[in-house]
């Protein structure tokens, strides 16, 4: 047992995914980047409060340990979803989001429709986003789509705007309308498509130099005719 957990009173939790009781730690932060949460598989660095097993190397963010075992999900309204410690077995070479991303951690699962959702995606609700003027509604991405905001493919939970028939990655809902990058002196604005019919089609990204399909989202500077893929413009490794 870790020395800091000896002779102290802690709130305990018996979690379905672990054999030993877990204790709630509220005033200690994990200072290394090696431990990960067994629920979301994200880093525990400086996380507090958290649950841990004093006998094993086993950690949970508090919010992950206290997830409800069954929920009704707005992205899948047909049936309740059950919390599983890991995704159920899928067919070989499955192309779903969880398999292509080699996802580890908790999922919410519909046993009737055979659908898995990352725990975070199961709680998505209607949102407002900086890059769009209308509310965006979550839906389960059971079919392949191309994100209108960034122009790349998706196959998981996404957001839609019925007013403009847009489909947007969950991650892209956090994009900003304008950004500043070190490669260009002016601010870049997000556009969903290029409106000049005479110049529509493909154009080179000024960061990676691959083609941009201007029928989908990109960042541009109208004054300088400067264009960049959304993912290039926000990727710090490319700047």
Automatic annotation (TrEMBL):
The cross-references to InterPro entries, in alphabetical order and at most eight, read:
C1-like_sf (IPR046349), DC1 (IPR004146), Vacuole_Formation_Reg (IPR053192)
| Source organism (scientific name) | Rubroshorea leprosula
PANTHER family annotated for this entry?
CYSTEINE/HISTIDINE-RICH C1 DOMAIN FAMILY PROTEIN, DC1 DOMAIN-CONTAINING PROTEIN
UniProt xrefs under Pfam families: C1_2
> This chain belongs to which protein, by name?
DC1 domain-containing protein
Going by the UniProt record, its keywords in alphabetical order are: Repeat
**Domain spans labelled DC1:** 16-65, 75-115, 183-233
């Amino acid at each position: 047992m870790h020395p800091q957990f000896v002779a102290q009173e802690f709130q305990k939790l018996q979690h379905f995914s672990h054999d030993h009781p877990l204790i709630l730690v509220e005033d200690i932060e994990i200072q290394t980047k090696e431990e990960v949460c067994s629920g979301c598989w994200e880093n525990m660095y400086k996380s507090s409060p958290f649950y841990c097993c004093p006998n094993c190397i086993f950690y949970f963010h508090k919010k992950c340990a206290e997830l409800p075992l069954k929920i009704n999900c707005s992205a899948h309204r047909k049936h309740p979803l059950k919390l599983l410690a890991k995704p159920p077995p899928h067919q070989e070479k499955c192309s779903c989001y969880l398999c292509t991303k080699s996802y580890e951690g908790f999922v919410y699962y519909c046993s009737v429709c055979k659908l898995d959702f990352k725990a975070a995606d199961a709680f998505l609700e209607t949102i407002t986003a900086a890059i769009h003027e209308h509310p965006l509604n979550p839906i389960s991405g059971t079919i392949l789509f191309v994100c209108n905001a960034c122009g790349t493919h998706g196959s998981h939970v996404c957001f839609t705007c019925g007013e403009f028939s847009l489909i947007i990655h969950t991650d892209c809902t956090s994009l900003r309308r304008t950004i500043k990058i070190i490669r260009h002196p002016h601010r870049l604005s997000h556009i969903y498509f290029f409106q000049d019919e005479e110049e529509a089609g493909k154009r080179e990204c000024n960061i990676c130099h691959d083609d941009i399909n201007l029928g989908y989202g990109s960042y541009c500077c109208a004054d300088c005719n400067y264009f960049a893929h959304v993912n290039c413009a926000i990727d710090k490794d490319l700047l």
